[in-house]
Design brief:
The chain contains ten helices and no strands. It is mostly helical. The chain has a domain at 61-194: Regulator of G-protein Signalling 4, domain 2 (Orthogonal Bundle), CATH 1.10.167. Helix 3 (42-69) crosses helix 10 (183-201), helix 5 (81-93) packs antiparallel against helix 6 (97-110) and helix 6 (97-110) crosses helix 9. The protein is elongated, with a radius of gyration of 31 Å. Residues 1-19 form the signal peptide.
Length: 203
């Protein structure tokens, strides 16, 4: 269809297309045909879908095994990133998550190599968790608190060791057994055991 009217959009488009080099038009046609071929290959999408399903299944098996391992020991729980997250969520319901946060802060503190950073981090951790009336004060005895205070004068990576050990023991003896009996963990372990049973029945 031709258009003789001045300023006609169709006429303008024709002029633009006519001005394009032949190579550009050929490349566009080639690209269009390649896309068409890819879109009409159902087996390609099928392969991608299958591989993602396999990876997902593998992740499910790993996480199921992990969840069941948390009840073996407190160490197993602390080794697992998802275990620490689940335990932290549980501690929040008991308003005692500061114990785990302090333990994690101490673990991170031990990895510090710079002496200047070590001193500033030590003071920050002490002020947040250890000193009397701290915003997130952990439940440790007066003697351990004072030992930790003295350790700050020559801060080393070991200056929180005693306070961290006391907090860990408190969590292991007190919070950890309650976590294992909690409805949230019981639910998770039932689902994990169910996935394990389902896997065995299909083999």
């Amino acid at each position: 269809m031709s258009c003789w009217m001045p300023g006609c959009p169709a006429l303008s488009m024709c002029r633009v297309l006519a001005a394009l080099p032949i190579t550009c038009l050929e490349r566009a046609k080639d690209l269009k045909s390649r896309l068409g071929i890819l879109l009409h290959k159902p087996e390609l999408g099928h392969r991608i879908g299958n591989s993602s399903k396999l990876q997902l299944g593998s992740r499910h098996r790993d996480s199921s095994r992990e969840v069941l391992e948390w009840r073996e020991s407190f160490d197993q729980l602390l080794k697992s990133k998802s275990g620490v997250n689940a335990f932290h969520t549980f501690l929040k319901t008991e308003f005692s998550e500061e114990n785990l946060d302090f333990w994690l802060a101490c673990e991170d503190f031990k990895k510090t190599r710079s002496k200047t950073k070590l001193a500033s981090k030590a003071n920050r951790i002490f002020e947040e968790f250890v000193q009397s009336e701290a915003p997130r004060e952990v439940n440790i005895d007066h003697e351990t608190r004072e030992i930790t205070r003295k350790n700050l004068s020559g801060a080393t990576s070991a200056c929180f060791n005693e306070a961290q050990a006391k907090t860990r023991t408190l969590m292991e003896k007190d919070s950890y057994p309650r976590f294992l009996k909690s409805a949230s963990y019981q639910d998770m372990s039932r689902q994990a055991a169910g996935r394990g049973t389902g896997k065995r029945s299909h083999t």
